[in-house]
Amino acid sequence: MHQVTLGDGLRVSAIGFGGMALSRVYGGIAPEEALATLHAAVDAGLTFIDTADVYGERPEGATGPAGTNEELVGRLLRDRREEVQLATKFGILDAAAGQTRGDAEYVRSACEASLRRLKIDTIDLYYMHRRELSRPIEETVAAMADLVSEGKVRHLGLSEVTADELRAAQAVHPIAAVQSEWSLWSRDVERQVVPTAAELGVGFVPYSPLGRGFLTGTLTREDVAGSMREGQERFTGEAFEANQQVVDVARGVADDLGATPAQVALAWLLAKGVEFGLGVAPIPGTRSSDRVVENAAAADLRLTPEQVARLDAAADLVVGGRNLHAGRPEWVSAGRE
Q1: Which one of the record's GO molecular function terms can you name (predicted)?
Q2: CA-to-CA separations, 15 to 158, 174, 238, 241, in angstroms, rounded
Q3: Which of 55, 126, 127, 207 is flagged as catalytic?
Q4: Domain ranges in the chain?
């Protein structure tokens, strides 16, 4: 697979792999099966692997980041470290409660804990997962920059930041990537964040590029039940059926190309990167090795301007807002712009 250049000279596979999908948020998976999926991703060229300290399940009564997803990825890295561009994150203490932390002491301790779980010496891309809103972002990024100076981290990233926050962070230390939700049905970042990233030479890593599975055209109501999608506006009631219109647009383009809706949705993001003039590397997650191969093939799919325009128009068909985590608009960048 070809590589793309994000910011600060970081080169990664054009399509990465989102490790959160292997931590039961979309259903159970055995550890050995999860590890096999990670190996399949690297075999297919998806060498940009994304995890976070908060992904996974905490033991009953425990507090703070679970770390089990990092431990899983660490098993992959034991044999394939030189093949992988590894990204992980810190900053979320409890997503359901909206609890975050970004002081220097915590930044350091979180990084060192991640390194221990991953069993590596250096993290390729270290993200601030969410801001501690009462603390200046410059303070947190300065603490992250110290980790670069010490060789614990190679590049810095930020998740769900506004354009102004990105500018403030970039003034402290070069930022390699912003990670935020971006897909055919979640395009709010195009208003301010994406253009600012392009202006500053920062790359973009779209999470949930397949709309938490909806844009694959294979999701059922049974898949939604009991997963993190349950209760989110776009997956409930009449919205679930209405949003099939978005999938129908992607499927129409896919039929023209002999591709799948998922491949078209990923190829659209790569095309938008060209349009906006910045490096883009979406990170779809899956529990299936077959889906890994399908997603990888999207890197070679080329859309015509007319097809991109058709897909752009699908945003007008979306019913319901994107996930705001327990109704907290400030949890995502659009809620603070």
Answers
A1: oxidoreductase activity
A2: 18, 22, 32, 29
A3: 55
A4: 3-211+276-302
